[in-house]
Design a protein that fits this description.
By secondary structure, the chain is mainly alpha-helical. Helix content is 74%, strand content 0%. The chain has eleven helices and no strands. Helix 4 runs parallel beside helix 7 and helix 7 runs parallel beside helix 11. The two termini are 26 Å apart. The N terminus is likely disordered.
């Protein structure tokens, strides 16, 4: 039998647009078909966070960084909801495919590692952006909160979905069982989200914890969205863009390497 070169077997040009679109469509339809769980539930959770903090803190809470506490809190809750769901979309898709044994349906089609990576990320980013729009609409209706810098806010939402979607894919490839996935979520993702200035300004932290917070990419995501929504932030949004972009590229490179070598994906 005649040996085929890579060029012979690759009949779709440099990019298999049809395959990439199909994978991205699959990952998007995964969460759209259960929209009450993937879009409505996060909205309810975000609303409960705001309600509980409003009741617990009370109207006597002083302003934070010159704005009312709920106004300061809302962008943090919004970004936390975005990143948690972007992470869940890619990680659950990958680990379910591995546990059920149908990961071969993704690996066998003529898709390059980069195309598989982008297809999974498309679903995570789409879910994060849709949730951001839903939460933003609710905030506008309830609190009258309208983004001051909408383009910057949208950019950080997309970047947050991409970063946590890539991190979710990394976790999904690494985990072979659901309990491993739960451990990653509980001991890595949740602390990153909660210890990142979501509910407070990092300027209020002791110096050591303040410096540690500035190493956390999620801090810059929340801080950047807060700047886009209410025009206040703990750090420069441009520094945040640089840090988050670098972190996203690093995780994507690790994912590409694992997909290329078949790490924990192929027998």
């Amino acid at each position: 039998m005649q040996n085929l070169t890579d060029q012979d077997t690759r009949r779709f040009g440099v990019v298999n647009w049809m395959g990439l679109y199909t994978l991205a469509q699959r990952e998007t339809l995964r969460f759209l078909t259960v929209w009450t769980q993937t879009l409505l539930a996060p909205l309810v959770t975000a609303g409960l966070f705001l309600l509980i903090f409003n009741i617990a803190v009370g109207p006597g809470r002083p302003d934070v960084m010159g704005v009312p506490f709920l106004t300061f809190l809302a962008p943090g809750i919004m970004m936390m909801t975005v990143i948690q769901n972007a992470f869940a979309n890619t990680s659950s898709s990958m680990v379910i495919a591995k546990v059920q044994g149908n990961i071969v349906d993704t690996l066998m089609p003529p898709l390059s590692p980069l195309e598989i990576l982008l297809g999974y990320l498309a679903g995570g980013v789409a879910r994060g952006v849709l949730i951001a729009f839903v939460v933003a609409a609710a905030l506008a209706l309830v609190l009258g909160l309208v983004p001051v810098n909408p383009l910057i806010a949208l950019l950080f939402v997309i970047l947050g979905g991409a970063f946590m979607g890539a991190l979710g894919l990394f976790a999904g490839i690494f985990a072979n069982k659901f309990d491993q996935m739960a451990a990653i979520t509980n001991f890595i993702v949740t602390p990153l989200a909660f210890l990142s200035g979501t509910f407070y300004s990092v300027d209020a932290l002791p110096p050591l914890l303040n410096r540690i917070s500035h190493v956390n990419p999620v801090f810059y995501l929340i801080d950047g969205l807060r700047y886009g929504m209410i025009d206040v932030s703990d750090s420069s949004p441009y520094l945040g863009l640089a840090v988050c972009s670098a972190a996203t590229l690093l995780i994507c490179a690790l994912n590409w390497q694992m997909l290329r070598t078949g790490y924990r994906l192929k027998a």
